[in-house]
Amino acid sequence: MRTAPSRTTDGAAGTGTDGTATDGTATDGTATNHAGRAGRARAAAVVALLAAGATLLGAGSPQGAGLPAAGGGPRQAAPQAAPAADPNCDTGRSVPPSTVDGPAVKAIKDNKTLVIGVDQNSYRWGARNPATGEIEGFDIDLAKAIGTALMGDPSKVTFKAVPTAERIKFIQDGKVDMIVRTMTITCERMDQVAFSKPYFKTANRLLVPKARGVKTFDEALNGRTACAARSSSAEDELTKNPHGSKLVTVENQLDCLVLMQLGKVDATMTDDGLAAGQAAQDTTVTLLDEQVRPGVMGVAMKLGNTDLVARVNQVLADYQASGAWRDSYDKWLKPTMHDDAERFRP
Fold this sequence. Notes:
Blueprint: E1 7-9, E2 13-15, E3 21-23, H1 39-51, H2 103-110, E4 114-118, E5 121-122, E6 126-128, E7 135-136, H3 138-151, E8 157-161, H4 167-172, E9 178-179, H5 187-190, E10 194-195, E11 200-209, H6 217-221, E12 225-229, H7 233-240, E13 246-250, H8 253-261, E14 267-271, H9 272-281, E15 285-297, E16 300-301, H10 306-321, H11 324-337, H12 341-344
Parallel strand pairs: 1-8, 4-8, 4-9, 12-13, 12-14
Antiparallel strand pairs: 2-3, 5-6, 6-7, 9-16, 10-16, 11-14, 11-15
Helix pairs in contact: 3-10
């Protein structure tokens, strides 16, 4: 069923592409990164690179420029369930699904809008289509389904672009009601925010320039500079297991690809789905077969909003049962992750 577009806020005051007002709120707060305080200048540089047509963000739709043929990219090993460092931690644990509106859901409805934190820089997950100005992708389809189910009217749903490094802070500070943004569920994060049931299996992989000809993590990282988004599972992995590398962190994982294209870093670690999208965008880079930190992604919300988590879990159950999850996978992820939907379904 075709729905009206949701409102989007991306830090620019004025009128959105669908005619609704944006709030002009900055999406990066006070975030900085070890690669330099690029802020808006970095965003402008990324846009310039995209517009130059290099290898980043083609048209964000399935018909966009630079789309590889299905099955044309590297085949990925299926992520398995994440081994928990804490034997008492279960990353698949969440509250039972429910259709009942509790206090958290009622408060959102009283505010007349549901604010969902999303990505606008991740090809096929959450990226802005330059032809339409709309953010679209696998996570965006899910966010729209949640918003429509909770609010009954897509015009009452606002998407706010949130940097990787700020996801938890945006939830805790009440800047968004939830995050739907390739967020891996970890035991540490479960102490900071509440998670839905998992909706996607994932793992961390390395993206490197093809010209290097490396095959393993040790070859790719020893004596080299690696890049990861701040506050990501990739940053945690490279901090604990650097393989002889120096770590550079950035606000968003797309910044790592830009730095690698500029020769500033030698390798990028990120979730395999995001990495596959980057490899599809830039044919001069490749994904290594090795993978670490298998896990699952979930929708993140504020601790204590149990009724909201239960409502989201009901939407996820319905989304899976209706075939909408598979339809979205086929539309957005199949071209870069092959016809392996069931291997990534939790």
